[in-house]
Design a protein that fits this description.
acyltransferase activity, transferring groups other than amino-acyl groups, acyltransferase, Bact_Acetyltransf, GNAT_dom, alpha+beta, Aminopeptidase, transferase
Length: 153
């Protein structure tokens, strides 16, 4: 297998058409894990994705998109991961970690921020293994919490 990570532009319709179904499948798994299907990217349509102002990196197996990470740069010291999606057919194979490694090399900022559903154990484990520490839990719906993480390098 030949994997490649590259920057993508989701304002391009063809690119967005590749990302959207992967995003929907990935967030459907998270919705199941956390017992809540009100996750905004799960409901996002093509126009919504194409209006994204985030920076994006995508991981490909040949021409097939297996995962992507979206991030923002709110200030000179911070990178905030806003989305990390891996197609469930390719889950638990290191694609999310590879995307985060690539992002770390591309944007070696001292502060990293990310959040995920508290009951999303695979994502929580991934962030904790990368040096992120839990900073707070926020209730977003009855019985549903989101955990925020921060990493200082």
């Amino acid at each position: 297998m030949s994997f490649e990570i590259r920057a993508i532009d989701v304002t391009d319709a063809e690119t967005a058409k590749q990302v959207l179904p992967v995003q929907h499948r990935a967030y459907a798994v998270e919705a199941e894990l956390i017992g809540f299907d009100g996750i905004p990217p799960l409901r996002e349509d093509l126009a919504g994705l194409m209006s994204s102002t985030e920076h994006w990196l995508a991981r490909y197996d040949g021409n097939s998109l297996v995962g992507a990470v979206a991030y923002e740069l709110p200030d000179a010291a911070t990178v905030e991961i806003s989305r990390l999606v891996v197609d469930p057919a390719h889950a638990r194979q290191g694609h999310g970690r590879a995307l985060l490694d690539h992002l770390d090399a591309l944007e070696p900022r001292p502060i990293g921020l990310v959040s995920t559903g508290t009951a999303n154990t695979p994502a929580t484990r991934l962030y904790l293994s990368r040096g992120y520490q839990e900073t707070e839990r926020i209730t977003v719906a009855p019985g549903v919490q989101v955990t925020r993480f921060r990493r200082q390098r």
